[in-house]
Each structure stands twice: as structure tokens, then as C-alpha cells.
Write a structure and sequence with these properties.
The protein is an alpha+beta fold. The protein has one domain: LCP protein (Aminopeptidase), CATH 3.40.630.190. It has helices at residues 15-30, 103-108, 113-129, 142-150, 186-194, 206-224, 227-230, 233-243, 250-260, 291-300; strands spanning 51-59, 65-74, 79-85, 135-140, 154-158, 162-166, 173-177, 180-184, 244-246, 269-273, 276-279, 287-289. Helix 5 (186-194) runs antiparallel to helix 6.
């Protein structure tokens, strides 16, 4: 039986950042709605000044982490980076399935719950990037559609026809999106982000799907950072409450809201993908990390240390 739910490599999780930006902007506009701004505190020696890192996780109906990213924000230079990590990335774990996306599920067992899952995922990500992210943001996929619809849809240049049908009960998926410049509502934007292959076997690579996901994120961010988008911030507050979990405090978010007011344009946020050297082949098809290229990318983008 096909497991379409596992096929989500939807980046809705990165929309957690958009929700936080929106919620923070609302706090900024309302002034006293939250308590005073509270610059997040991060420990450790030899840290860069006012440099923060985030684990960004997207979870489906169960405990599958179908989107995993690590982001950073440099408050001195007013720049952010997000590195998307393929969910099948190989990690040296003690369990039989050594894919990164199995870490959260493993951590939730034996009463660990969400905190156990996040803790396990952070530990395994450290083996890839060399440090544990400071904070986490966790969002479920329903937030994706809600945010896009609240923004009035997103404008996307669809590069090719996307057609796929799976009638499996409980996991139905029907995609029919024509190539061309189109405004996609929440449901179709989610399908665009999920698309991987057609029923006749043709399809795209995992990395091309990440590019599509990033295109939707950038389109949504552009709409959010407009006067019309900011007027819709109250709706994001409800979306945040319903769909997002984080260890950032309300005061932290207000501090980031003040930072948002200093950022101009979307060029300040750059998207990347964790470098790999290929796959292990059958039966597991692990994505094999390219340690040298990962080190270079991390040092150029999200490394919080001097």
C-alpha cells in the first residue's frame, strides 16, 4: 500500500518562520499586546554576537518529520539562512532505520513525547552540522493551507504539468496543476509542494521538489511583507495558536518583531540544501552526507560560533 503521508516533503515547516514573522509583526504593531521585548539568550563560549539558530520541523498527522530545516538569524547584519535537510539523510544512529526523519519518532517513545522527539532530532542533527540549534519551531501541515489562503494565494511559475492520482482510502491525493504562471490557493500550493512523480513514472528529484517548496515560501513571504499582508496578521495569531509549537517566548517574538522592522526585502533570507554525495541504493536509499561540503556551507551560513 502506498504511504502518501510519508511522501510529504512539504516545507510547511518553514512556514513556521512565516507565522512567527507574522505574529511578531502583529505584536510590533499592537505595541503592548505582549510584554516587553526580550532578546533571546543563548549560551556557549565564542559565540557570534546576536546570532540565533533554529530547528524547523514539519510534522504530519502522526510523528513523521517530513520537513527538516535548520535556520539562522544574524541580528548584527540583518540576514537569515535556511538549510533544508533531506529526510532520508543517513545518520549514525543505534536504531535499524538510520534516516534522519526517524529520529523524532524514536525520541517520542517511552513517554518522551514532543520534547523527547525534538531532543533526539537535535542530537542527530548535531552529528551533521556540528552544533545543536538554539530553538525549535514545530508546525503541522494544516498551517500551510491556512496561511496561503489567508494571504489570498501565491503566484507561482509552475515549470511543468503536474498530474498524479492516488485513490488509497485515507491517503487520497489528486494533483492536476497546469504549467504556467498561476495563482495557487492553499490546497493547490500544498499539492505543488508535495508533487514528486506522475502515475506513468516520470517525475522530479528530491532536490527539485525542495526548490519548488522554497519558491512557495518566497512567494508567501513577499506577500506577507506588504501593507496588505500585514493587515491580515490577526488571522496568523489564530493559526499560530492552533498549529505551531516553539520554545521561543512571547517576549522573544516581540524582540524579533523589532528586528523585522529593520529588514528590507526578501533578499535577506537565503535558502540552501544540505549537500549529499549520492544515495546508498537499495533497499534503504539513504542520502549520504557530503561532510566536506556541509562544513563549508555551515561555516558560510548558519554557524553561530566565531
Amino acid at each position: 500500500m502506498k504511504k502518501i503521508i510519508l511522501f510529504f516533503k512539504i516545507f510547511i515547516v518553514s512556514f513556521a518562520l512565516i507565522i512567527i514573522i507574522g505574529l511578531s509583526a502583529y505584536a510590533y504593531l499592537r505595541g503592548s499586546w505582549f510584554r516587553s521585548p526580550d532578546m533571546p539568550h543563548v549560551g556557549g563560549e565564542n559565540r557570534k554576537e546576536a546570532f540565533f539558530t533554529f530547528l524547523i520541523v514539519g510534522i504530519d498527522h502522526g510523528v513523521n518529520t517530513d520537513t527538516i530545516m535548520v535556520g539562522s538569524y544574524d541580528a548584527v547584519n540583518k540576514r537569515g539562512h535556511i538549510i533544508g535537510i533531506p529526510r532520508d539523510t543517513y545518520v549514525d544512529a543505534s536504531r535499524s532505520v538510520k534516516k534522519l526523519n526517524a529520529a523524532y519518532s524514536a525520541g517520542t517513545r517511552n513517554g518522551g513525547g514532543k520534547e523527547g522527539g525534538i531532543g533526539q532530532l537535535k542530537s542527530e542533527i548535531k552529528t551533521l552540522i556540528g552544533f545543536v540549534p538554539d530553538f525549535y519551531v514545530c508546525v503541522n501541515f494544516e498551517a500551510f493551507e491556512n496561511i496561503i489562503d489567508s494571504l489570498g494565494g501565491v503566484d507561482i511559475d509552475v515549470p511543468y504539468d503536474m498530474r498524479y492520482d492516488d485513490p488509497t482510502p485515507g491517503h487520497e491525493l489528486h494533483i492536476d496543476i497546469k504549467a504556467g504562471y498561476r495563482r495557487l490557493d492553499g490546497a493547490n500550493a500544498l499539492k505543488f509542494a508535495r508533487y514528486r512523480k506522475s502515475n506513468i513514472g516520470s517525475g522530479i528529484t528530491d532536490y527539485k521538489r525542495i526548490e519548488n517548496q522554497q519558491a512557495v515560501m518566497n512567494a508567501a513571504l513577499e506577500k506577507l511583507l506588504t501593507p496588505a499582508g500585514l493587515l491580515k496578521i490577526p488571522r496568523f495569531v489564530q493559526i499560530f495558536n492552533d498549529n505551531v509549537g516553539s520554545d521561543l517566548t512571547a517576549g522573544n517574538m516581540l524582540w524579533f518583531a523589532n528586528q523585522l522592522n529593520k529588514i528590507k526585502g526578501t533578499d535577506a533570507l537565503t535558502m540552501h540544501t544540505l549537500p549529499t554525495s549520492g544515495t546508498s541504493g537499495p533497499p534503504m536509499y539513504y542520502e549520504l552526507p557530503d561532510k566536506v561540503k556541509i562544513l563549508d556551507l555551515v561555516n558560510e551560513t548558519i554557524n553561530p560560533f566565531k
